[in-house]
Amino acid sequence: MTDDGDGDLEARLVEQETFEPSDEFVEQANVSDESIYEEFEEDWPRCWTRAADLLDWDSPYSEVLDDSEEPFYEWFADGTLNASYNCVDRHVERGDKNRAAIKWEGEHGETRTYTYQDLYREVNEFAAALRDLGVEEDDVVTLYMPMVPELPIAMLACARIGAPHSVVFAGFSADALATRMNSADSRYLITCDGYYRRGDPLDHLAKANEGLAGVDHGVDATVVVDRLGEDGFGHDLSGNQHDWDDLVADHQGARVDPVERDAEDMLFLMYTSGTTGEPKGVKHTTGGYLAYATWTSHAVLDLEPEDTYWCSADIGWITGHSYIVYGPLALGTTTVMYEGTPDYPERDRLWELVEKYAVDVFYTAPTAIRAFMKWGTEYPERHDLSSLRLLGTVGEPINPRAWKWYYKHIGNEECPIVDTWWQTETGGMMVTTLPGVGTMKPGSAGPPLPGIDARVVDTEGEEVGAGRAGYLTVDKPWPGMLRTLYNNDERFIGEYWEEYSDPDADEWVYFPEDGAKIDDDGYITILGRVDDVINVSGHRLGTMEIESAIVGVEGVAEAAVVGGDHEVKGEAVYAYVILEDGYGGSEEMREAIIEGVEDAIGPIARPEQVIFTPELPKTRSGKIMRRLLEEIANGEELGDTTTLRNPEIVEEIQAKVRD
Ligand code: WTA
């Protein structure tokens, strides 16, 4: 065993609070002049043509921003384009057809490389197949697939024919799939027979079929990728279910003209957790989103077409949409995809792949870095990581210790790190340093990107001074922003705009529901969610969704879910449960609750602890004191309990958590 990486960090590194990119990095960086901040500010919103200019438009836009119907902003609205053309065709047309677009590695080490020419062929053939299945422009196609190359191919095929996709993370349950298909009124599903996890095949199709049974409006067609071959579970495909390979074989050589889409036409829907039990269908558009994902890939990830780039997220989350698929492919980069987990077959799997593919830019989540730290430096030390030029993180706050570990043991103190704050709703990165410009401060994401008007305010909307905690807001719109929640404009306004806007004064302020603080240099440190969303291993989960799953278990009367600190996951699910009379807090009950959560959402939402209690701490008005439950989960000293109706319960619960 090696140490946890802390002991061999030299004192200098431990104490060092700021870091500069090397001259070598700056010299080659896509953006290296700090005047870009001023330039964007002075030229706002026209500055965003810099993003739009990275794309090829079928017909040009005449206006950058239309803000006549705030907060329903429109960007580049009268321009037309196609996302699949921008991510595929144009690279082929420009003579880059033999460059690798996707390098895929399966868990067992099997590999597939798709050049841009291959991708062009696959996307066209599958687009033709989708059309023949009856998919029309604006039909929402649900993609419930693991990390197989057919997933980005299907996304781009949908984009080609103007059918928005809605990708549902493969780790989500059958119920979660059905909820999302029902909400989006989606009649087409593309899925997979299974995939490998730590050596074993998983029966994904069984879950997909169960989900399909819960789709109220029926489904016109399902396409199933055969990933497992002989390891498959022997499901027969029924009436309207088609085998991917057969469909594609039937459309060999087919070509489908990319459909000219309005910039504001929906490119995709992505469901995400919010304050209520119902997931929100975040709507992203063809022009603004694609321009923004591409621009940030260029400016922040510093991607060049010649780069091999790897984001280790899953495409089932927004990070994979923007920074595995759309941004990197629009730039003509080589993007790496890996099916498996970082610790299989051994804990050096990711570093093995960085070496094997000579990865230039690597983007991952702090939860992974914390796991790497725990495992020790011997794993990265087994490999030559010298191809790396830039590192990034996303999804949750990274503490300075983990940042420095990443900097030293992965980046060899040579690669800048971008700590990128953003959300499903923002479409792309919002707060981070530009790697070729800014000083890095471990633990602080950095200043807002050029053109992004993020601030830290108090409950009244007044900016707080340096060092004080407040709430993050974004005062000006940006091209990558969500346009609405699918079929629910009212909730869109309620969730994001009501808090800080003043509609009478025509002042619209976006509220991301994160706490933050700002320093004298304008660097923003994100403190975490201020709504009832918790962040488990970088995955955003609504406590209400988990609570309603638990309350659905027979014998449960009431449940309260909070996030407790967790060394690797960041936060873990703590479930406080009151049972109905006649039910005891048995091991079986605990298992039933865990199963209930896994069935309703998926294993990612699995409670770390289930604490049975006769009562929950409540205020006199009957509100559950979640803050107290969090403090109890974290073993912290408790804040004020005098406003409780039932203060005596607190000690009882504390004793149970300690057990
Ligand atoms: C959190 C993921 C601190 C934040 C792209 C946000 C972060 C939520 C960071 C969005 C970061 C994301 N530092 N916190 N660099 N990046 N977050 O929608 O709470 O899955 O609101 O998007 O993750 O999660 P989502």
Integer average pLDDT: 95
The hetero compounds bound to this protein are:
5'-O-[(S)-ethoxy(hydroxy)phosphoryl]adenosine
Give helix % range. Answer: 25-40%
Q: How many individual helices? A: 21
Low-confidence stretches: 1-5
Beta-strand percentage range: 15-25%
Task: Please describe the biggest sheet, giving its number of strands, its sense, and whether it closes into a barrel.
Answer: 7 strands, mixed
Quick one: overall form? globular
Distance between the termini: 30 Å
Q: Write down the Rg.
A: 24 Å
The assigned structural class equals alpha/beta
Number of strands: 29
Q: Identify the strand order in the major beta sheet.
A: 5-4-17-16-18-19-20
Verbal overview:
The protein is 31% helix and 20% strand. It is an alpha/beta fold and 659 residues long. Strands 5-4-17-16-18-19-20 form a seven-stranded mixed beta sheet, sandwiched between helices. It has a seven-stranded mixed beta sheet with strand order 12-11-8-6-7-14-15, sandwiched between helices. A hairpin with a 5-residue loop joins strand 23 (514-518) and strand 24. The longest helix is centred in the N-terminal third of the chain and has 18 residues, at 116-133. The chain is globular. Mean pLDDT is 95; it is low at 1-5. 5'-O-[(S)-ethoxy(hydroxy)phosphoryl]adenosine (WTA) binds next to helix 12, strand 20 and strand 24. 5'-O-[(S)-ethoxy(hydroxy)phosphoryl]adenosine binds at residues 272, 317-319, 394-397, 419-424, 445, 512, 514, 526, 528-529, 535, 540.
